[in-house]
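Need tokens for this chain, all 251 residues.
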Amino acid sequence: MDTWKFFDITHREHGICNPTSEEKLARLVELLRLPANARVVDIACGKGEFLIRLAEAYGARGMGIDISPFFIAEADRRLKARAPSSGIAFTRMNGADFKPDPPHGFDVASCIGASWIFGGHAGTLEAMIRMARPGGWVIVGEPYWRHEPSGEYLEASGCAKENFGSHASNAQAGERLGLELVHTIVSNLDDWDRYEGLQWFSTAEYARAHPDDPDLAEVVERVGKARTAYLRWGRDALGWAIYMFRTPPAA
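Here are the structure tokens for all 251 residues:
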């Protein structure tokens, strides 16, 4: 089935499309302390919640990019409802194809939870560095292993051990590129339970409302397998954090 339809079905209850709580996203926005009219870009912006909050808090302007037509439509709807006169625009495209013009022009360059776009965590950091101004923010969200994942979990989830590093190695990846790590916002089990559980809830609600959808059996099967893997192994094995880095100031 269409990948983006699947994520639309499973994330209909999510405003934040990653395991970060409302409170922790609010902390991220507050800590950025942006100047008025700061320029921002968010790759794989989902439903636009992070950018909309930046527009509400600071009058930020810039763009959100996502490949999902469903998420971009929802981001536009939310923007019109909450910050209709802001300088934020949402564009549907593959984030890997976005080329900032000029480079190094954004006060904030972020990619929260979609490092696959750039070939992994290190590649994502490198891409954000090319977008952020000197002294600007590079914000990335990335899973990490809490402990050595079992072979059973890797097989059940379709993950590879090398897909993720540790919390420390995620931080060190930025430092090796010359970034300054100034804070991490780490999710707890409640955050994970909400993120995962809302996917089960959304799927169940969709199944009741759309029993004749030809894709329904596949959605239910995939979500059921993911639920089992999460409850048996993933809840204890996989962590998540948002890493707040700063680029070096101009010489």
